[in-house]
Write a structure and sequence with these properties.
About 25% of the residues lie in helices and about 15% in strands. By secondary structure, the chain is an alpha/beta fold. The strands form 4 sheets. An 8-stranded parallel beta sheet has the order 10-9-8-4-3-2-12-11. Strands 1-13-14-15-18 form a 5-stranded antiparallel beta sheet. Helix 8 links the parallel strand 9 and strand 10. It is globular, with a radius of gyration of 23 Å. The structure holds 1-deoxynojirimycin. The site of 1-deoxynojirimycin has 10 residues, from loops.
Amino acid sequence: MTDAVLTTDALVTGSADAAWWRQAVVYQVYPRSFADADGDGLGDIRGVVEKADYLAGLGVDAVWLSPFYPSELADGGYDVADYRDVDPRLGTLADFDDMIAALHGREIKVIVDIVPNHSSDRHVLFQAALAAPKGSPERDRYIFRDGLGENGELPPADWQSCFGGSAWEPVGDGQWYFHFFATEQPDFNWDNPDVHAEFLHTLRFWSDRGVDGFRIDVAHGVSKDLPDVLPSQAELDALSTTDGRHPLWDRDAVHDIYREWRQVFDEYDPPRIAVAEAWVATAERRAKYASPEGLGQAFNFDLLEADFDAAQFRHIVTDNLAQSAATGSSSTWVLSNHDVVRHATRYALAPRNGSLAKQGSAWIIAGAPADQVDLARGGRRALAASLFLLGLPGSTYLYQGEELGLHEVGDIAPEHRQDPAFFRGADPDRDGLGRDGCRVPLPWTGDGSSFGFGAGSAHIPQPGWFAGYAVAIEDADPASSLNTYRRALALRHELQTGESLEWIETGRDDVLRFARPNGWQVVTNFGTEPFPLSGEEPVLGALVDGAVAGETTVWLRG
Ligand code: NOJ
């Protein structure tokens, strides 16, 4: 009745505290949109302090903060002007220390975002590079090349930025600099030892302040090997990204950098942890980032990219648990973050059930044809998928607002949009609308200014329907998404042991059931026909007429 038992138990070493990350529920705070304590329209660090009880009540083990550093906000803070300070609009280092104390005091760890691929063009090192001549040590910290044409008036290559448009920007003296992302995000040259020193300093700076770990932005893009004669974009696209030798992406050499960082992480007790954001081609390539000699863990975006589909979910889980067992890491599970359409909305789409590649404009909520978007169904499926994830071995990353079942905001006016992907014309998966729709400030109350986000208006306007998803409204409803997440996280603390699962055959292609070593079972009905469960009473979720209803998950104590 079962297939392979998947386990990494034997590979778990060290004290319980050193291994805290292996089974942690990590809640992503996008600081500028979480809670605004000073009423200026931007969420801030004191906002996180004020919501520390909320986070503790939700039951998360850790908080990951997206960048809160000084930034001109050309890319939502991922354009960092100073890696070792707090954006004055968001607070001070003293506020940050208070936040650490508030969260640690509630047994919540803190992970911060490190952005090593590029800085802001306002960063002191880039300003020095601009002020220095061609060929100078200052310019060598970034990626400068001579332009083509008689006076260098043409870009060194036709490379496209990830956000659309050219990846090269002229600086006025015949030289151009490279940027994977926005023009304001020049890429570092990691062949330069000063860049290594800068980041080792930064890792120690935050570790000394009590930060427990790091999320590494674009971890797979940091190391580059640009030949003197640059290939064309078409030639680049034709190169393999799985042999570790691509000039730009997922190079084997990048792991030398993370081995160096591991030495720093291990200077601390417990060792600082890290998780790689690495959108690489295969699970095998991803595993390299999760090695114990490197970052230790890597985001697994496979479920995020999958449909709400039992066969896909089962295959992905089996595959990834086997990968982590082989490498000694623990798997991470993610359905939403600040870069993708919220999963409640992805799952609201018919007929493709939320495939990112196929959704086109159907996910625009306002005015979308009813036969293309079913929000209630999306919410139901999102909760079922989240409860499935929370029953799995490994760590789960939640994105702020998903505990409310919050939907993507599709109809943000162009003048209120902020995402460079929108302005540079990239992101065809979202019909060119960019990522602002999942970054709208959270609703805390059903009324009042910015639905309790702050005393002023929110930096991205919230739609009226946000009221129905407000924390205060859901708080009062025992059956709400929020209260279901709270119950799930509390039970998970009790039930989460070992790092293995066993699939139990259900006789249905659209129903998954698995058991953990302590008997805890998770049953998810991905279909619409009820799935009878005779004589068993769930500890989470309820049966309807003795069956698991369609698009629902229940937990059994076993
Ligand atoms: C990945 C981040 O998640 C995304 O928000 C950002 O735009 C890019 N890296 C560039 O830093």
